[in-house]
Amino acid sequence: MPSHERQHLVQHNQSQSPTTPQWGARRWLWPSIAAMGVAGAMALGWWRTSYGPAVGPDGVMYLETAESLLAGRGLWADGVPMTHYGPGYPLLLAIAALVQGEGVFESSRWLHTSLLGLNALLLGQAVRASTGRSVLAGVLAMLLLLTCEPAVRAHHTIASEALFVALMLAGLLLLSRSLRSGGHWSLLFGAASLGLAMATRYAGVALLAPLLLTLLAHPSTRQRPLLALPALVLTCSPLGLWLARNALIGGTATNRALFYHPPNSGYLTDFARALHGLLLSVEVPGWLEALGLVLVTGLIAGALAMLHRRRPLIAVARKQPLALLWLAFALAYTIVLAATRTFVDAQTPADSRILLPLWMALVVIIISLAYAVSQATGKRAFWWALVLVSVVAIGINGTYTWERSRSWHRNGSRYSGKTWRRSPTIAAVSCLPTGTIVYSNGYDVIRFLTNHEALTVPRHTNPNSLQPYPDYAGKLEAMCQAAATGRGVVVYLREVTWRDYMPDREAIVDACELSVLQELDDGIIYGSADARLDQTLR
pTM of the predicted model, to two decimals? Predict the structure, then answer.
C-alpha cells in the first residue's frame, strides 16, 4: 500500500474512533443501569412488604434464634440448642436488629429488601463476566430475577435462601476472577464466601464442587498444591465448627438421622413444576413441564457439544470460567438435593425456594452458553434468539409478579399477613390467662403473633426420617392431663393443614375427651369445663 494511502487510512480510523466523552459515557453505562436496577429492586421490595416479610414455620425458628442470641442466651430456639439450620442467617438477623435498633422482625424488612437489590446486582455481574462484559446480558439477568415471582417471593420470606444466594454469587464471582488473573486474594475471599454460604444452608456443601474445580485449574495451586490448603480451611471451617458445636451441646450434628426414604413420583413432579415456575409463570400440563425440563437439559448439552467441536471445552472454560463453575455447582446441588431427600430429610420439598440456587445457576449457564456459541460459530442468531425468548419471559413473568406484589402489599403473606393477624382464634389465645399451657397444631404461629408460649401437639411420626416417635403415647397423655386439669388448653387451627405427622382433631378429641371451650371461624379451643377459664374465653 502506498504511503499516502496508508496515512489516509490511519486518519480515517482515528476519525471513526470514539471520542473521550463517548468512551466515558460507555464506561459508566453498566454502573448506571445496575444502580437503577438495585434501586428499583429495593423500592419493589419495600412496597411489597408493607406487612413485613412472609413468615412460615422455618421463619419462626429463625426469628426466635436471633432473639435468643440478642438476649445473650446463644443460638437457641424452642428451648433447645438450634441445630436444624445453619447459623449464618439468624446471625445476620441479629446483626440487622442491632444496627437498626429495632426488633428482629421489624429490621428483617430492610434486610430482605437490601438482599433482593444485592442479588440482582450480583447476578447481573455474574452474567456479564461470562459474556464478554455484555451490558445487554447483565440487564437481561437482572430483569429475569426481578420479574420472577418465586424468586422475588423467596427474597421476601424469613428464610435463608436470599443470604445463601448472595454468598454463593459473590464466592463464585471471586473464584472465576482468581482463575482469570491467577491472584491469591480473590481465591481466598471467594473460598471464605463459600464457607459462609455452607454455614447458612447445609445443602451448600454442593459449593465444594466449584471450589475443587477452581483449585485444580488454578495456576498457583497446580504448581504448589499446598497453597490450596488455606482455601479449603476457609471454606470448610465455619460449617465444621458449627457441626462440632451441635454434636457437643445438642447431641446431634444436624437434628436429622440417616434413613432410606427415596423420592416418589410426586416429588419428581413437584421438582419439574417448581423449576418450570421459576422459568415461566404460565400453568401448563405436568407432562409439558417435564418435557420442558428435558428440553432445557438437552439444549445445554447440545451447546456444550457444539462448543467442544469448535474448540476444546477447556479453552472455553479458561476464557469464561464462571459458566463452568456454575455448571459444576448445578450438577452437585441436584445430587445433594436427591441424596438429602433419599437418606437425610424426607420433608425436603421440591419447591421454588429450595430450587432458587439451581435457577440462578441455569440463568448464568444458559445466557453464557448462548453467547459463547454465537461467538464460536459467528452466527449471532443464537444470541438474539435467546434475547427474544428472555424478553418474552420477562414480559409474561413481570405481569404475574406485579399482580402478586399488589396482593402482598394489600394483604401480606403467611403468618405475618392480614388473615392470620385478624384470626379470631389467635385473638382468643391472646386473652388466655398468663401461665396457661397452650398445645396446638399451629404452635409456631401462636408464638409469633401472641405473647403466649405454645407447645406442639405431640407428633406421632418424625417428618424428617418418617419413623414413629417411641414416646408419642406418653406425650399425648401428658397433654391430655394438662388440659383436663385446667392447666392448659389444646388449640386446633383449621388453616394448618400441612402437618400430617400430627394427630388430627378427631384423634385428639378421642384421646383426651376434652370439652369445647370456644369454637371460632378458624379454630377450636379445647380444655376442661373449668368456670374461670371458660369465663375468660367468653
Answer: 0.91
